[in-house]
Amino acid sequence: MREESPRQGMRRPDSDRASSQRSTPRSGRGGQTLSERYIAGVPARIMRPRLIFMACLFTLVCFGLLMVYSASSVEALHENGSATFFLVRQATFAGVGVLAMVAIVRVLPDSWFGENVLRIFLIGMILLLFAVFLVGSGSRGATRWLNIAGIQFQPSEFLKPFAIAYSAIILDRFFSPGGNINEFLRKMVVYLGISLFLIFIQPDYGTVLIISLTLMCMALFAGLDPKFIIGVIILVIVMSVFALVAEPYRMVRVQVALNPWADEYGDGYQATLAIMAFASGGLFGRGIGNSTMKYSYLPEAHNDYILAIIGEEVGFFGTALLFLVFAMLIYSAFRIAEQAADRRGALMASGSAVILAVQFLINALGILNVFPMTGKPLPFISYGGSSIIVSLMLAGLILRVSHESARRDEYDRRRESFAVMDESTAGVPHVRGDRPSRNGFTVLDGSASEPAARPRPRTAPQGRPQRPNPRSSGGGYNRINLNSDPSARLRTDDQGPRVRRDFHDR
């Protein structure tokens, strides 16, 4: 079965391509092929990556709840009087995220994912980002949260799913025949450029970097020439240097990533404790709940630095297994993107997978002190309402693409069930000239039994020669004698070969 990679345009598998993918011999009259199997009424090529994605998603969410409880129990008991305080809140946030995911996959109509509706959501996100500077709250010099009716959330996190869904539509339209570069730039700058600028000045450079890298990958998947990526990379490097110079704390994070032991009790305190947590975990870890760094040693143990607690309690093999499950989640998401019904869906699924993968890598590399720590949570694992809800919304976008693929594939399956019948159900065939059946419907087998069964030849009009009838009196056709030698049909025995003479030969 030939499959196209996301870089090759993400074109929809139309009926011609779908039929070519099922070119193996049929196993029955129902149209099912030997290579096409069905799981719960859905083709296996669509259902298999969906099941893998859902299994990995369920595993990550449950493991995240377990590790949030393990990493936060000591702090929750000391500050709130209940060891399950953060666990209950995280479970509530996860429940809200699951409801949002189900609504995206099964409840919301297709019109909610159109350009007009998404534009309204993006305008609302721009207003919320403006409100952050007016009535927002923050910590450590960054204003990123809003508190509405007692519910605190981070608007920059909720921008991610809307930005991906909207960009998928705009990129699909631009890279289609007749795409307009002016319209593309205008819509991307007005609705996404302003949002990213407001996030940048909060300041929240990590979110800007994650969304920008995701949009760059989506453009590459849509058909952007890789040569333009070099220019974009140079622009990102220049902006990164400017951001480091503009804010001194960013330069401090770079210095901590280069040498955390230079100020182990100051700026490098969290980085050194995270490294020691991994080192103390060994190969198999201390066991779930047996971490020592969570006893008021490692700050933000259940938030941004939860991966350090995971490494301490489950060790190297447990951490590697977590990475493997997350890699399977991303791989199945790209498989869903390959089976998408159109390029818009493929870009939406692949963009959601990329943004989850980028955020996971940024957090993991920051904990391992390979990359400067940006304060981004670990998807599906870290504590935080905005993080878990947005992560499940992105998972919902991926699953919606899978359901759209199955819904479009239903028409291909019905088309496959069409077949030419081996036996006629119209009635018993009769010889031409026999008495027709009483029901007014007669099937003829094309033969004739006697001359009387043949229709009488029509008489030619007066003055016109009648066309000779090749049939003989026996009801068949006369055999024409073509001679045994083919050359005899072209010339006589005494005639030489015919030579073509042109005018200039005379």
Task: State the gist of this model.
The protein is mainly α and about 500 residues long. It has 13 helices and seven strands. The strands form three sheets. A three-stranded antiparallel sheet has the order 3-4-5. A two-stranded antiparallel sheet has the order 1-2.
Explain the overall architecture.
The two termini are 64 Å apart. The strands form three sheets. This protein has a three-stranded antiparallel β-sheet. A two-stranded antiparallel sheet has the order 1-2. It has a two-stranded parallel ribbon with strand order 6-7. By secondary structure, the chain is mainly alpha-helical. Residues 1-35 have low confidence and may be disordered. It has helices spanning 15-20, 44-80, 85-107, 115-135, 155-174, 181-200, 205-222, 226-246, 248-258, 269-281, 306-338, 343-367, 385-416; strands spanning 38-39, 42-43, 137-139, 142-148, 151-153, 429-432, 443-448.
H-E string: HEEHHHEEEHHHHHHHHHEE
The percent of residues in helical segments reads 55-70%
Strand content: 5-15%
The total count of strands amounts to 7
Major sheet attributes: 3 strands, antiparallel
Rounded to the nearest angstrom, the radius of gyration is 36 Å
Please tell me what the overall shape is: globular
Number of helices: 13
Oligomeric grouping of the chains? single chain
Query: How is the largest sheet built, in terms of strand order?
Result: 3-4-5
Derived from helix and strand composition plus strand pairing, the structural class reads mainly alpha
Mean pLDDT: 79
Low-pLDDT runs: 1-35
End-to-end C-alpha gap: 64 Å
